[in-house]
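Table 4 source record.
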Amino acid sequence: MCQANHNTYRNLPVVILSGTAFQRGVQHGRKFADRIAAAIAKMKCGCPPTNFRVARGYALRSWTELQGVAPALVEEISGIAQGAKCDTIDLYCHIGFEFFDAAPPGGCSGMAIASPAGALLGQNWDAPPEMHEDLALFLHLNDAGVALAMVGSVGTLGWVGQNRFGLALLTNDLMLDNTTSGFPSQVVRRLVLDQQDVSAALNKLRQLPIMGGRCYLLGDSHGNIAAVELSPAAGVCVAPPAPRIFHTNNALLKPTCAVQNENQLQMTYPSSRSRLAALEGVGEGAATVTDLMAALRDRTGAPDSVSKTMSDREQTSTAFSVIFDCSQHALFLCGGPPSDGNYQFLHWPVALTEAA
């Protein structure tokens, strides 16, 4: 249990899904049917009927294209819709916030460490309080154990995760250009996490039609890491190799900086650059999981710090903090700001236990 500023944060629930892609989807949908229905109803109420019809049109076009590219993912989404007794395209709209030309408000602070013993990735995922309660750790099981671990919101495909090969993915929102065609970012994340290592993940990203601007941090069991900034205009831009990579919500590479909306950045993520500087300072010599925990717990510049709590200018706080140990097929997960709580440890397929 984590506590901060009189707010109580709970450890994220663990949801185990097994069987075929469709069966896993049905289990997901049935378990959270009421909450998925409520989320879709809220989505529909949040925009005029005309705008929703337009978004559904974009989603239907994307869904048709996805059927020819990723049939297993189509089966999983269809299963969620069947289990939740909701319309499949409505659910796809819920998964793809890009169909509405908008991203859910929130900012993140993340870093990656290269090592011959396997990469380490860590991130604090910040969001408004109303998004916290729908988060869970989803474990997708096959005959060999955990094939995929994703932290995500119910009724979606997941925000961050690690696959059976040890490949891990983190993501940061960026204020770049967007388009109305292609695949939403949660689809992209899952297709990237079908790959075995960073090199294959980068190749997959270059093949996919991207709808909006975003940063992905990648790491694999061989110790490789990469930071990718991408958008429809800039394409897939990979940062120069480095032993450690730090990222928040502002673009760092020349092609993406050229298409960054600076006014929107200052309105949405005014603390991004100060969080980045703080993270670079505390994470400069980080080499271990313990070092990563210490960096992610940093409160420099609080409340708009790496371990973030609510502020007047940014109505978000860290909903969860996660660390992926790529070579060990392990993750460390804390619900709420890690400066105020403990990480749980999951070593596949061992159950969650308390860590530092």
